[in-house]
Write the C-alpha cells for this entry.
Amino acid sequence: SFTTSSDKKVLRAKLHSTAGGYYEIFINGQKVDDRLADPGQTDFDKRILYNTDEVTSLLSQGQNTIAVHLGSGWYDENIAFSKWANPDAAKGKQIQKTLSFGQPKFIAQLEVVYADGSSDIIASNEKWLSHPSPILKEGLFSGELYDANLVVKDWNINTSAKNLANWQPVKVLNQWPTERLEPQLLPPIRAVKKVTPIKIYQPKKNVWVFDFGQNFTGVPTINLNKLKLKPGQAIHMRYGEWADIDGNLSQKSGGGAPLLKQVDTYIASGNDQSTWTPTFTWHGFRFMELTGIDFK
C-alpha cells in the first residue's frame, strides 16, 4: 500500500508494469486493464515488453493498494512442449528440453503528478508482500486447477494487518532477468466475442458435452450459481476439437503439443463467486466436456 498526499489534488497518474509470465494488476481492487495473456511472448532473456496505463481515476485520496496476480505464461512454460521426465529415473547424459526461464517475476512503477507540479514515484521493492494463489496449477495451454477454498478475502484492496498475517516478503532479484524492457506496442489480446453452445450431448451419466459449433480460441465462463456446488465439490472441464456422433469427446488432436490434454478444474468452497473464468490459460476447441455435477 501507499499514500497519496492528502492536501494535494492528483493531476494524473501513470502505471508502468510488466512481468516475466502472465499477470493481472489491480489498484484498490479495480483491474487496471482488460488485456489477456499479457505481456506478449518474446525471447525473455533478451527483452520483456511493458505496459503503460493511465490510472488517475483508480486512485483514492490517502491510502491506496497496488496488487498483482502472477501466472507462468510463456515465461515458465514447462508442460506443453516439454516431455515429462521421471525424476526418479536414472540420469542420462541428454539434457531435457525446456522452455522455462524460471519462476514468474514482476516490476512496476507508478508515477503520480499533483496539480502543483510536484510528483511521487511508487515502485515495486522488497517491502511488497506475497501470498500463494488459489490457482494451484496452470499452463497456458494445459489449463488451471483452482481451489476456491484458498481464496484470500480482500487480497487486492486496502486491508487490515490481520488479513496480511500469513503474507511473506517478496524476493528481490540480484540481477535483471532480461537485457532490456521495451514498451508493448503490439495490439493486446482481448475477449472480442461471446460464443454459446449450439447443442448439448450427454454421452454418459453425469457427462455433459457442449458443442459450440466452431473451432475457436477462448476460455469458458462457468455460471457457478446455477450449478449449486457443495463445499469441496470439484468440476472438471475438458476441451477438444472433435467428438463422435454420440458426443464422446476426443483429445487426440493437440496441434503442436500432441502430448497435451486441456483440462480446467474448479474446487468449490461453499462461498463461491457467481461465475468463474480461468485466468492464466486459454484453449483451442469446439467441444467442452463437463463432469463432476449430478443434475437430477
User: Anything to note?
Assistant: The chain has a mean pLDDT of 91. Helices lie at 224-227. The first helix runs from residue 224 to 227. The first strand starts at residue 2 and ends at 3.
